[in-house]
Specification:
heteropentamer, A mainly alpha, B alpha/beta, C alpha/beta, D mainly alpha, B: Rossmann fold, four-stranded antiparallel β-sheet, C: three-stranded mixed β-sheet, binds adenosine-5'-triphosphate, binds magnesium ion, Phosphate import ATP-binding protein PstB (chains B, E), ABC_transporter-like_CS (chains B, E)
Chain lengths: 318, 298, 301, 302, 298
């Protein structure tokens, strides 16, 4: 039996024992190349962001050279194409805020309700069938949703069934339909968050004599909060950024929206119309497009950064 | 003999490789407490079968659980110990496709009888799980959860929480951080918190499914001590893989095994033997029990 | 009107469909139906030529046209000086061709029984920027009218139609009250007007004729009596000031070198009558057609 | 061993048997009804939408829709180039976005140092990109193609670039989720055998994540299929008289064709638009169904 | 004093304060095989510290692993057994923030030295995990995976797979279903498949982190038998919670515990004692070892 070779602590390098297997690896050039490709693919997302900023910023700056930023942000009259021009973006912002708000008013309760039902009450078979059907709602082209708002929700549902006096175009109809469009986003992501809550927590609650509703409201929902917040925020982003529904159904009249039965032009709706309109490219009117685009970008960015913080705060490791 | 002596009685016997231990863990001390006589059954299975879908997981189990006693359920994996345990407080209701036939009597009343509220059953017959599963809430809220949801009439929740944590031998360790998340506790502390949570709703019976299998030996020891203390107020049923544990703390032990159907290959759990723990470990009536106890099983 | 949806075999020299190549058209969405109709008919003659029509708007169309990206630019208004300068800077020479006529029709709700003919002054009263907040009901236009609230609908502010109408009615492009409901989609304007008793709107004649059940078409009095908008009145210029021409701009160099483009443009002009009918517009007067032919001829010559 | 119980029970020990379960108390019932209604209303909307579109468009849902080219005469018009254009664009989008998205996700999930500032920034950035309005991607694609000197932007590759940029973050995020769902133990098992990181990813992690990746990707593609806004900014065509036949070919897609038709004065075009909408919804339904089949079929139990 | 001396001849002068427990598991049979002498170290930790972020998880571990011996690492939860094990084949490289200081010598060569390829290290020093983790592939492909990715030069993969499965005592059970998914196997079979997978790449050393803790007693027994068989060809290091298991199969045993820092409350793992298994279980030199072995720990 050989005695142990010993190494004085702190000795520099130890030569390997005679006959010891080599531990140096073979070179793996493919590995290196592929890893660089992967890294480049990930970095591309940053390039995209930079691209967005550049493509918005140039014309937007040209615009802000002529219209002071403050006037743009605080003005309440939006009339870039009228003879008496005015570039206060608040009418567009209020319209966007209202459509978003109404959409959330519909999507958050219904989306969460559907999610809770699917995650906590439905049998697995039912969930497997219903969830994808619900997700289908998210896949319906927004153009189709837009005409649905115009030809069904406003005249039949709102005016006909509910007796609400809305015009052909209204923030209300557009917001409602947008809400329905967002339901699956919120429902599906919240449902994922809730199913990720360990079964053990539900069992623990049931074993204490809590009923299903109590378990859901007091254990599952708080535990899934970060996922639900993330879902709602994605819903908000969708609502702010949705274009076709509002372009078709909310109207094109830029006015300070104080009442959802009014019509109003949202930021995205304005961009879509302006981009397809007959204004001369490069003109001041045309460049408003980019100023509004930039504002939209900054707004969604802000909503998201806040959301990321919130999600971090509520994140729960089990 | 006091409980501490009992738990400190060496559990580790000679266990050389591939040789059966010469002696099974001793449990002689327990005869002073309970007798061969049938216990007053707080809870009793009568001819219970449990099915999952079409598959019969356990068959024909009749088993009484004595008042203020600890009953251990042992047996190889898959023999249906957890299944039986869950049928004792209708937790199986929550498992898709599970069906319980037969009767489970609680103070003589069938918990599967008509008009019985499973939620009420679960409040009376609490449960502690294999992996500690505190809620993602503060320590205080974990304990207060049960009293709140069951609408218990409490004078002072603070007092109740303190008292409960004391009974669960956790108060001293957590009294300064009641408002902190329960997830900051160690595994053993979390499990004691789960026990505290369970006793906060003042159940009669506590069911425990391998409550120590995720814990280290020291934490295990503390839980065992706690169980022995709690025995004075509660009827305890514990499933364990650890035979030494059963020998150390159980008054009575039920040994289950799985019968294999020759044709279908289905394994169905059956109760082989139920007796005083000392009897099961020292002088089992059934050869299958003996084989299992001595590690000769298979 | 000269609308006739039954297809007649397009006339024009058919050299057996031997051509291939590409014709890229972009521009006004108002003119698009014309170009699309032309392309539809042209396909039967020259199936080998790929014609595409996009609707980036008149401004968007000129942007691309002057960057030498497109062959033809559809325009609902004449090219602006800045745009022309850009074309020049890029060395793009072009020919403006009037390709059809359009009448802007003024419509009201069918239940409106107090007006059949509107004067240009009245239009000015209703639509001028100063009216915002003051002229809010029909009674404010003329005391003899009922006190029915005015609800105004019209073309989107980004459209050539908007520019044209505001110029014609108020003497300056973009000079109009802002409290009306603009819409890109004239079908929606129809819905708006048909939904409100006091409603009024303006849009292309074809929309009014297609929706004769839902809206009432007004005659317009330019001081020379009431004139109802028809192909004839638009063509002969008596429907004033709301009759307007629609244009295509053709890239001269490309016209010269691209046989497919040449064939298409020639075909477009030769069949302008049929095309205008298909697209629900008003065809050219003989004089207009002749001018256009001459312009083209000078190009190849 | 069973003893018939004769124990007397105290009231405390007595279980109420009046059948009043706390599961069925009024509040719980109202709660459940509310949940059920939520789901019901969402599904009802979908149904209403499909039915009302069907009523509008059923008359034109015939073979002409598939075989005919657009025409200024509604009776002769069809969506053939739009259908083919949608296929071309979505196919190209998939080719662009899927490999890139998977590569980025693999880097972030499997190789990136989570603590490096840059990688954290990339992560936040991708989350943000996923929330950016689609119309802004249109503006980006216009800028990007302009930069490349592409004159004619309404070509298949142009539309595909816009849509690929749009869905890239979604593909990355769903791929990362699918990769994350693969248990660590599998990777460790592979690495402990002397496999390299890339071998582990290629042979173990990615195959195990395929169901999740394909589900997420199909849903992303179906979103792209229904998008109109970014393509409109590229100067989308409303009239195409030929079948698209390559990356540089002009194209139109179904949502744009639908949008274009609804702007025509003739009511027949609106009927045609409804028919095309139905077709589009049908295609999306098929794609979602495919995603579901994949999800259910290959769902693994670890 | 050299490290080996330190770890192999622990404070013999200090006789244990109290008598060794009479009931400690006997391991006398093993003395026929290994002697008190230091083993030929295939693998050796020299002054190893492992940190996670700033936190020192284990400190100052010097420990040789003898050729063709089974060494067991035991100790309470959180004392750093898994951490040390993972540092033996650089699996810690994959853990965020983990840092290893000191040396781990493999045949005298520091595996953390410059130019050493961790991938090569892991092929030589294989690892089996707590939960069986077969790949979602067929049984055959699970075994063939290692040889394939490491580019091993094999004449016939079929032969290699068969031979390997035979060595892992699994061949007879799976030979008819080689092409079926490994997930169809029972837990015990899956774990043996993982062992087979590991030996297929012909490592020198096999590290096992509680390989039986997810298994039932019968499956555990089979794995233990397998380990004893494999000992003739491989050097085995096993972490176990189950002291009987260590007593049954290990030639030498290292006992770890966690020192608690009074001020910060941080727990740092330290090696308490390393010796022949029989010595550790029958006559430990350190009182902490004895307390742990007899269950009096804490
Ligand atoms: N939810 C379930 N659905 C279907 N079958 C189940 C379910 N739970 C358990 N089984 C089956 O019932 C039998 C008994 O399982 P059970 O979990 O009760 O065994 P156990 O004795 O507790 O085993 P272990 O010691 O591994 O926990 C097993 O064959 C198991 O596969
Ligand atoms: N990835 C990690 N990051 C940070 N700390 C870790 C990590 N892994 C382990 N630790 C910490 O290091 C210490 C030692 O952990 P380790 O898992 O090695 O203990 P162990 O002896 O294997 O315990 P067990 O018996 O529970 O498996 C513990 O305090 C643990 O919390
Ligand atoms: Mg169990
Ligand atoms: Mg460990």
């Amino acid at each position: 039996m050989t005695t142990l070779r010993t190494t004085p602590a702190g000795a520099a390098t130890t030569p390997p024992l005679p006959g010891a297997p080599s531990l140096t690896g073979r070179p793996r050039p493919l590995e290196t190349v592929v890893r660089w490709i992967l890294r480049a693919a990930a970095a591309l997302s940053v390039v995209i962001t930079i691209g967005i900023v550049i493509s918005l910023l140039g014309p937007a700056l040209a615009f802000f050279r002529e219209v002071p930023v403050l006037d743009f942000l605080t003005g309440t009259r939006w009339a870039p194409q009228f003879a008496d021009k005015s570039f206060g973006v608040l009418p567009l912002v209020t319209a966007t805020a209202w459509t978003t708000f109404i959409a959330l008013l519909v999507a958050v309760p219904f989306g969460l309700g559907a999610a809770i039902y699917l995650a906590e009450y439905a049998r697995p078979g039912v969930r497997r069938t219903l969830k994808p059907i619900l997700e289908l709602l998210a896949g319906v082209p927004t153009v189709v949703f837009g005409f649905f708002a115009l030809s069904f929700v406003a005249p039949v549902l709102l005016r006909g069934l509910l007796g609400i006096q809305v015009g052909t175009f209204s923030i209300l109809a557009a917001g409602l339909v947008m809400g329905f469009m967002i339901i699956p986003t919120i429902a599906s992501l919240s449902e994922d968050a809730m199913t990720a809550v360990p079964q053990a927590l539900r069992q623990g609650s049931a074993a204490l004599g809590a009923n299903r509703m109590q378990t859901t409201l007091r254990v599952v929902l708080p535990a899934a909060l970060s996922g639900i917040v993330a879902a709602v925020v994605l819903g908000i982003s969708r609502a702010i950024g949705e274009t076709m529904i509002v372009a078709i159904a909310a109207g094109a009249r830029p006015q300070m929206v104080t009442d959802p039965t009014m019509e109003g032009a949202t930021m995205t709706g304005f961009i879509a119309r302006m981009a397809l309109g007959d204004s001369r490219i490069g003109s001041l009117q045309y460049n408003t497009l980019f100023a509004v685009g930039l504002l939209l970008f900054v707004l969604t960015l802000a909503v998201n950064l806040v959301a990321i913080q919130l999600v971090r705060r509520f994140r729960q490791e089990y | 003999m006091n409980p501490t002596d009992r738990t400190l009685e060496p559990s580790v016997k000679e266990a050389p490789a591939h040789a059966a231990p010469t002696t099974a863990p001793s449990a002689r001390w327990r005869e002073e407490r309970v007798t061969k006589d049938a216990p007053t059954p707080v809870l009793e299975c009568v001819d219970v079968d449990v099915r999952y879908g079409g598959f019969v997981a356990v068959r024909d189990v009749s088993l009484p659980f004595g008042h203020n006693e600890i009953t251990a359920l042992i047996g190889p994996s898959g023999c249906g110990k957890s299944t039986i345990l869950r049928s004792l407080n209708r937790m199986n209701d929550l498992v898709d496709g599970a069906r319980v036939d037969g009767k489970v009597q609680y103070w003589g009343q069938d918990i599967y009888g008509p008009g019985v509220d499973p939620i009420e059953v679960r409040r009376r017959i609490g449960m502690v799980f294999q992996k500690p599963n505190p809620f993602p809430k503060s320590i205080y809220d974990n304990v207060a959860y049960g009293p709140r949801v069951t609408g218990m009439d409490v004078d002072s929740m603070d007092d109740l929480v303190e008292q409960t944590l004391r009974r669960a031998a956790l108060w001293d360790e957590v009294k300064d951080k009641l408002k902190q998340s329960a997830y900051g506790l160690s595994g053993g502390q979390q499990q004691r918190l789960c026990i505290a949570r369970t006793i906060a709703v003042e159940p009669d019976v506590i069911l425990m499914d391998e409550p120590c299998s995720a814990l280290d030996p020291i934490a295990t020891l503390r839980i065992e001590e706690l169980m022995v203390e709690l025995r004075d107020r509660y009827t305890i049923v514990i499933v364990t893989h650890n035979m030494q544990q059963a020998a150390r703390i159980a008054d009575r032990t039920a040994f289950f095994t799985a019968d294999v159907d020759e044709t279908s290959g289905d394994r169905t759990g059956v109760l082989v033997e139920f007796d005083l723990t000392s009897k099961i470990f020292e002088n089992p009536s059934d050869s299958r029990t003996e084989d299992y106890i001595t590690g000769r099983f298979g | 009107g000269g609308q006739d949806n039954t297809s007649a075999a397009p006339s024009g020299e058919s050299d057996g469909g031997s051509l291939s190549g590409q014709v890229v058209i972009d521009g006004s969405s108002t003119v698009e139906p014309l170009s699309s109709a032309a392309a539809t008919l042209f396909r039967d003659v020259e199936p080998g030529v790929n014609v595409t029509v996009a609707t980036s708007g008149t401004g968007g169309g000129f942007k691309r046209f002057c960057a030498d990206e497109t062959d033809i630019s559809d325009a609902s208004r004449p090219i602006k000086d800045e745009e022309a300068a850009e074309c020049e800077a890029n060395g793009v020479e072009y020919t403006e061709i009037v390709i059809a006529n359009d009448g802007l029709s003024v419509v009201v709700n069918p239940e409106n029984d107090w007006i059949d003919c509107i004067t240009v002054e009245q239009l000015g009263t209703i639509w001028s920027p100063e009216s915002e907040g003051t002229v809010m009901s029909w009674a404010d236009v003329d005391p003899s009218f009922p006190d029915e609230p005015l609800e105004l609908y019209g073309a989107g502010t980004d459209s050539g139609t908007f520019d044209y109408f505001t110029d014609a009615v108020n003497g300056e492009e973009g000079a109009v009250r802002t409290d009306y409901t603009p819409s890109e989609d004239d079908n929606l304007t129809v819905q708006g007007v048909s939904g409100a008793v006091g409603g009024m709107g303006f849009f292309g004649l074809s929309y009014a004729e297609e929706n004769a059940d839902s809206v009432k078409l007004l005659e317009v009095d330019n001081g020379a009596g009431c004139v109802s908008p028809t192909s004839e009145t638009v063509q002969d210029g008596s429907y004033e000031p709301l009759g307007r021409p629609l244009f295509i701009y053709v890239n001269n160099a490309k016209y010269a070198e691209n046989a497919a483009l040449r064939a298409f443009v020639d075909f477009y002009l030769e069949n302008e009558e049929q095309i205008a009918a298909d697209a629900l517009f008003i065809d050219l007067t003989e004089e207009q057609a002749k001018t256009a032919q001459d312009e083209l001829a000078s190009l190849v010559g | 061993m069973t003893t018939t119980t004769t124990t007397t029970t105290t009231p405390h020990q007595r279980l109420a048997t009046d059948g009043r379960s706390r599961e069925r108390n009024p509040r719980s019932v109202i709660f459940l009804v509310a949940l059920w209604l939520s789901l019901f209303i969402a599904l009802l909307t979908l149904l209403t939408l499909i039915v009302s579109t069907f009523i509008d468009g059923a008359g034109r849902l015939d073979s002409r829709l598939f075989t005919e080219f657009p025409s200024s005469r509604p009776q002769q018009a069809g969506a053939r180039p739009a259908i083919l254009g949608s296929l071309w664009v979505i196919g190209t989008t998939a080719v662009l976005a899927i490999p890139l998205g998977i590569a980025a996700a693999v880097h972030l999930e499997e190789f990136a140092d989570r603590h490096s500032r840059f990688n954290r920034f990339v992560e936040v950035n991708i989350q943000n990109l996923a929330a950016i309005p689609s119309i802004i991607y249109g503006m980006l694609a216009v800028g990007f193609l302009g930069l490349l000197g592409v004159a004619n932007k309404n070509i298949v590759i142009g539309g595909a670039v816009a849509l690929a940029l749009l869905i890239l973050p979604v593909v990355i995020i769903s791929t990362r989720e699918a990769l994350r769902a693969v248990p660590r133990e599998l990777r460790q098992g592979s690495l402990a055998l002397g496999a390299t990181g890339l071998q582990t990813t290629w042979r173990i992690t990615l195959p195990a994540a395929i169901p999740g990746i394909s589900t997420g990707t199909i849903l992303a593609l179906s979103r792209a299929l229904g998008e109109a806004a970014p393509l409109l900014l590229l100067g989308a065509l409303v009239f195409v008289s030929f079948d698209p036949n390559g990356l540089l070919s002009g194209f139109t897609t179904m949502p744009i064709q639908i949008f274009g038709w609804t702007n025509n004065p003739q009511a027949e075009f609106r009927e045609l638009a409804a028919a095309a909408s139905l077709l589009l919804v049908g295609i999306l339904l098929a794609m979602n169904a495919l995603a579901i089949v994949i999800r259910n079929r290959y769902q693994r139990r670890w």
